[in-house]
Amino acid sequence: MRLGIIRSIFGGAIVALLLTITSPAQQDTSGIKANAGEASQPAADSNAPGGHVDVPAAAPGNTAPAPEASPAPQAGNGSSYGSVEDNPYDPILEPPPLPKGKATLIGGIATSVDHVRNRLTIQPFGRGAKVKVVVDERSHIYRNGAPTTILGVHKGDRVYVDTLLDPANDRILAKNLRVVTDTGLAEVRGQVIATNPGRGTVTVRDQLSAKPVTFAIGSVTSYNSTKGTASAGDVQPGALVDVQFSPRRSEQDMARMITVVAKPGDDYIFSGVVSHLDMRTDSMFIDNKSDDQSYEVHFAPADVADLQQLKVGSEVTARAIFDGKQYKASNITIANSSAEPGEQSKAQ
């Protein structure tokens, strides 16, 4: 009798225990199925032969998180971002790179400026053919050193432009454009080839470029000479002059000071070291001490004292006359030589 009661109590305890274990799992069978992929089963004793290991069930109302998806790679180079080299600039919003090639400097006067279409026409110095130049976002524009835009360029301005040929659009592009208005005095040295007192102009052939340059003269022009004072009458064709002028927007620059270096018929004395000697043409260059200038002097061998001592590096004194083309020496003496001109030729 007692054994039957004990069995009944033990059996009821087992049933209660099984109900307690299985009831939480049955509250959300969908979660168990999603997690285990099969119908819920009572957990078996792990110690029983062939039994299954008890796996904790998911919390009620929650499901297992889905695996995070990897970002899909971009087509092309296999990276998630496009290469910059594949698209260096926006063809609609950005201008293309500057054309390749060496820039050419053009200096002149802006004869017309179009602020709407961003272009200007330049008359180069020296009266060459006019040049049309275009500016855009790639151009750098300066006015007296300060950055500006095309609105800072006006008709009549002196401009200096670094230009590039744009073959894609068949035009000349301004890489750098500089407007210069605050200029000091400039200088030109050369020979007078024409004067026009009626118009108040003088034309000089530039010694460096060999091109004629016309200057305006007036009440603001002063005159002097290497010999002292001078006047407008001394500025005659054939005279060698040094002109200091102030650039301006008009076609002719205003001469501020004209120095007469030499005029036909005048005699001059040069004293200095011989820097070049050519016996085939009977000429030499003398570095004159008084003005630190070099002068080409032509001579006759008979007019040189101690001709054998005449060489590069010799210190000489030459008296010469300017004939409108060259200096012709009539007397040349060499330092530390007591021979008189002509004595050497007589001895020979």
- Characterize the biggest β-sheet: 7 strands, mixed
The secondary-structure element order is HHEEEEEEEEEEEEEEEEEEEH
> What is the helix tally?
3
Enumerate the strands of the largest sheet in spatial order, edge to edge or round the barrel.
Answer: 3-2-1-6-7-4-5
State the helical fraction: 10-25%
Mean pLDDT across residues: 76
Helix-and-strand structural type? mainly beta
Q: In angstroms, what is the radius of gyration?
A: 50 Å
Low-confidence stretches: 27-62, 72-85, 339-348
Q: Determine the N-to-C terminus distance.
A: 173 Å
Please indicate the percent range of residues in DSSP E strands (runs of 2 or more).
35-45%
Characterize the overall form: elongated
Oligomeric category:
single chain
Give a nutshell description of this structure.
The protein is mainly beta. Helices cover 11% and strands 38% of the residues. Strands 3-2-1-6-7-4-5 form a seven-stranded mixed β-sheet, with no helix packed on it. Strands 8-9-10-14-13 form a five-stranded mixed beta barrel. Strands 15-16-17-19-18 form a five-stranded mixed barrel.
